[in-house]
Write a structure and sequence with these properties.
heterodimer; A: about 325 residues; B: about 290 residues; MetI-like fold; disordered N terminus
Chain lengths: ~325, ~290
């Protein structure tokens, strides 16, 4: 099911489940479960950009937080570089944390307003005891600032003196400080202006090329995903419905949900826009507290067959792609 | 060489900071200056006071302010100005120590319950709830009648009293800061809890801590005055502004209004001064307010 060559995978997520209890009343009695992530499996290959896309609430961020071990996992395994880190203790995780860093969506909330930029960028170094040599430390911070396109004399300023795009560059510099192998980007550009988005995306791609980074990229903006990804996984209601390389996914989407998702992107050309078919998708996203039986997409799917109501489809190989649908 | 220059540098930084305050927050700087003046008066009361602390002169009792006694004399003929100076010593000590203790208790309890949450939070904060249901005065009277009056007792009791109640304010703000992504980022990079508390949580609750501390100084000085009024404060003949105000000041209010006015005005001035100074500190220490 997952990729055959395990040496090439930096992260293997196997049948990941994250369920949140829904509690009620004074005694916090559990009255139900939120099936936020329900059986997600994927692998990220070294050096690629692997994107998770889906509507808000589909579980993509929860998946990312689980990979980072910032979210307790209900079931399943997270294998990083061949090591199963699912149940590592905080102390055992510390060396792993050096190798996985994260860039956040909101460049305003993710920088401490009372720390100078230089000290923010150097924080991972100090946390991991790599700041003993003051001269080396300072040189490294300046080097990181230049790497992301900031002037190194900005180190003594505070975050509020920077624009959104610059702040996101600071976040990137901080994520790069420990020379991680994997960077998780949780909607890194969705809070930025469109013109700045392109700059930051290009910076990320440029850094990937120069430093051989691997990205786990989370987004809902399909044009950004199309630009940066090598492979894309589409999530719906806590499950992956399709994994394909970028070309295949965007040119020949197979799963009815992927088709509907791509169809929802407006066409810039007004003539093409008017010929765009009507919405392929009907109804609202069901609640994760009470997901539909069988295929979770069947109540909204225009191509649903009888089997979809009963059987939960699993990811199957179909022409190089993985698709969870009874039609293939 | 560097060891010698370090304290000098620190001092000049302190001076530079206050010069900046004088420019951008003149009222705050004024408050600081007034407060410093009282502090100096308290510390050097022995040198500055024209008369002894308990030097009585029955011939000169209840005199109105004159050149000899610039703030008049009380019912035992003691010089009010001298007693105000010595009172500054005690009131400032009590105010600072108790407010300092209260702030430390508030920070420790507030940060622990706010940051860790869960069961710890539940247990400690229910205790705080229970503590706050008792009226302050009842607690004070009970404890002081058990351990007896004295400066140490008053500092400890007032410190605990205000500290425990104030922990709720710190806790609320810590919960807000904990949810910020920079705290999350520090956790995800593998920072230890103590690192996060020290570098991310504490600097960001500082504005609240400063305000809490400065308002507490005023409150404690007033609380001590209240206790002295009940005869539970620092025991006489030691002069505190509170006991001067509520003791002789109240009894002889019609015969010698200066007896109540002098400590009353001093109390008001110190409390006001430290409050405006605290506000200015809070604003100037916030990097976002700099240069604007």
């Amino acid at each position: 099911m997952t990729s055959d060559n395990h040496q090439d995978n930096i992260i293997d997520v196997k049948d990941l489940k994250v369920h949140f209890p829904v509690t009620e009343g004074l005694l916090k009695k559990t009255v139900g479960w939120n099936y936020a992530v329900d059986g997600v499996s994927f692998s990220v290959r070294r050096g690629e950009t692997f994107s998770l896309v889906g509507e808000s609430g589909c579980g993509k961020s929860t998946t990312a937080l689980s990979v980072l071990r910032m979210q307790d996992v209900t079931a399943g395994n997270i294998v990083f570089n061949g090591q199963d880190i699912t149940h590592f203790s905080a102390n055992k995780l510390r060396p792993i944390r050096r190798q996985i860093q994260m860039i956040y969506q909101d460049p305003f909330g993710s920088l401490n307003p009372r720390m100078k930029v230089g000290s923010i960028i150097g924080e991972p170094l100090r946390v991991h005891g790599q700041a003993k040599d003051k001269v080396k430390y300072r040189t490294r911070v300046k080097e990181l600032m230049r790497l992301v396109g900031l002037l190194d004399d900005m180190a003594d300023r505070y975050p509020h003196e920077f624009s959104g795009g610059q702040r996101q560059r600071i976040c990137i510099a901080r994520a790069l400080a420990l020379e991680p192998e994997l960077i998780i980007c949780d909607e890194p550009v969705s809070a930025l202006d469109v013109s700045i988005q392109a700059q930051v995306i290009n910076l990320l791609m440029d850094l990937q090329e120069r430093l051989g980074l691997t990205y786990l990229f989370i987004a809902h903006d399909l044009s950004v995903v199309r630009h940066i990804s090598n492979r894309v996984a589409v999530m719906y209601l806590g499950q992956i419905v399709e994994v394909a390389d970028r070309q295949t996914l965007f040119n020949d989407p197979k799963h009815p949900y992927t088709q509907a998702l791509l169809n929802a992107v407006p066409e810039p050309d007004p003539e093409l826009e008017s010929s765009r078919p009507e919405r392929l998708i009907i109804g609202e996203v069901p609640s994760v507290r009470n997901p539909p039986s069988g295929c979770r997409f069947h109540p909204r799917c225009s191509k649903a067959i009888a089997q979809c109501k009963i059987d939960r489809p699993v990811l199957n190989l179909y022409n190089q792609s993985l698709i969870a649908c009874h039609l293939y | 060489m560097s060891e010698m220059s370090a304290p000098y540098q620190q001092k000049s930084r302190f001076m530079a900071f206050h010069q900046r305050m004088a420019k951008s927050k003149p009222l705050g700087a004024f408050g600081g200056a007034v407060f410093a003046l009282f502090l100096i008066c308290g510390v050097f009361a022995d040198l500055l006071a024209p008369y002894g602390l308990n030097e009585t002169n029955m011939l000169e009792r209840l005199q109105s302010p004159s050149f000899l006694h610039i703030l008049g004399t009380d019912h035992l003929g003691r010089d009010v100005f001298s007693r105000i100076l010595f009172g500054a010593q005690l009131s400032v000590i009590v105010g600072f120590m108790a407010a300092g203790l209260a702030t430390v208790i508030s920070i420790v309890l507030g940060v622990v319950t706010g940051y860790f949450g869960g069961r710890t939070d539940m247990l400690i904060q229910r205790f705080v709830d229970a503590w706050m249901t008792f009226p302050d005065l009842v607690l004070l009277i009970v404890v002081i009648s058990i351990v007896g009056p004295g400066v140490t007792q008053i500092v400890v009791i007032l410190g605990c009293l205000y500290g425990i109640a104030g922990s709720r304010i710190i806790r609320g703000s810590v919960i807000g800061i904990r949810e910020n992504m920079y705290t999350h980022a520090a956790q995800s990079m593998g920072a230890r809890t103590i690192h996060i508390l020290w570098f991310h949580i504490l600097p960001n609750v500082m504005p609240i801590v400063i305000v809490l501390f400065t308002t507490r100084v005023g409150a404690v000085i007033l609380a001590e005055a209240g206790l002295s009024f009940l005869g539970l404060g620092v025991p006489p003949p030691a002069p505190t502004w509170g006991s001067m105000l509520s003791g002789t000041g109240r009894t002889y209010m019609y015969l010698g209004p200066w007896l109540a006015l002098a400590p009353g005005i001093c109390l008001t001035m110190v409390v006001y001064a430290i409050n405006v100074y605290g506000d200015a500190l809070r604003d100037l220490l916030d990097p976002r307010m700099r240069g604007s």
